[in-house]
Amino acid sequence: MEIVTVPQNELLSVTVIDAQGLSNVSLIEAVKKELNELCGIRNTNFIKLYNIPRALPKLKNLKYEMMPSETRLTDRLFLAGDTQLNASLNAAMISGERAALGVIASINTAI
Ligand SMILES: Cc1cc2nc3c(=O)[nH]c(=O)nc-3n(C[C@H](O)[C@H](O)[C@H](O)COP(=O)(O)OP(=O)(O)OC[C@H]3O[C@@H](n4cnc5c(N)ncnc54)[C@H](O)[C@@H]3O)c2cc1C
Fold this sequence. Notes:
This protein is about 35% helix and about 0% strand.
């Protein structure tokens, strides 16, 4: 299989958790350097930097897995989302799938 990419059309998003006291200009250069050294990504065009304080929910009791039955809040209400487990895309998807399975199980039980 051949994978064809058109580099000028690729969009890359980078998240920096700790700017280590660097200015925005220095931070952008540091990220470009790491992209080059660690990922072999060169000739990048910087587009935009957003500073988002407190971007992630402050969660206690971090979890990585849950049962479908745990997503059920009431008879007809099921909860999904990263706050159910941990602040990540993976957690959001897992909790969403478990909630869907919880709904299916409740429908099957009712039938
Ligand atoms: C800057 C940043 C960088 C990140 N980087 C990474 C990363 O590299 N890797 C990773 O795994 N995760 C990363 N995350 C975390 C990841 O983006 C989230 O954990 C994930 O998107 C959560 O998905 P979700 O569907 O649970 O919630 P969200 O994506 O937050 O969706 C919740 C939705 O509900 C809507 N909503 C809220 N309240 C109401 C209401 N009352 N009525 C109707 N709608 C409502 C919101 O508008 C939103 O659209 C990052 C997050 C941020 C902010």
